[in-house]
Amino acid sequence: MGMKMIEEIWLDRFSKNTKTAAMIMMLLGAAGILLPQFFTLALSYFIGWLLLFAALTQAYTLYHYKKSAAMAWLRPAANLLISLVFLLNPSIAIATLGLLLAFYFFMDAFASLFLADLFKVHGSRVWGIVNAVLSFMLGVLILISWPMSSALLVGIFIGITLFFDGLRLLFLSKNIGRK
What confidence tens digit (pLDDT) does each residue in 106-154 have? Predict the structure, then answer.
């Protein structure tokens, strides 16, 4: 099997998987835009449960391997504490998510510019630049109105970025499928 054939098989699989991922991202994005407070609260609880699972897994591993050093138990204790804050006091979690989201949008803007340049041969450069500009503007908007509007903005902005990332992936998969 030649390299050309392997590349064609890989690109075909990538195109199909990318279309599925794009549609899921666009549906989640639409949910975040239409139900922002519910989406934000669900995200807060999801992160809280992930951190709780991480804390329990780390504690089990430390206990199983009989690690008795106090410093080794700081990580599961910190994850447990943070998970309890997220699960028991969602308002603090949502405000924290607002700040983290602003940071995410700034990083997403820079990454999207890099990816736009990287994928310019596949015709998705414009969508990457659009995503970068939108992500940067969303990060600024979150910082300006934090923490009062975190519950609303986290859901809407994650929804918007998921939708446009999905749209970009959809166009990328269609263009790769043609080549």
Answer: 999 999 888 877 766 666 678 788 888 988 998 898 889 888 888 898 8
Collapse the DSSP code of 52 into the 3-class scheme (helix H, G, I; strand E, B; otherwise coil) and give the result: helix
DSSP state of 149: T
Burial class (CB in 10 A: 0-12, 13-18, 19+), 83: buried
In 3D space, the residue among 177, 145, 139, 171 whose CA is nearest the CA of residue 158 turns out to be 139
First to last CA, the chain: 20
pLDDT for the residue numbered 130? 86
- How many angstroms separate the CA atoms of 89 and 153, rounded? 18
**Interaxial angle between packed helices 36-64 and 3-34, expressed in degrees from 0 to 180 and rounded to the nearest 10:** 120
| 37 and 155 Cβ atoms separated by less than 8 Å | yes
Contact 14, 122 (CB under 8 A): no
pLDDT at 54: 95
In angstroms, rounded to a whole number, what is the distance separating the alpha carbons of residues 101 and 135? Answer: 10
| All structural domains of the chain with their residue ranges | 3-178
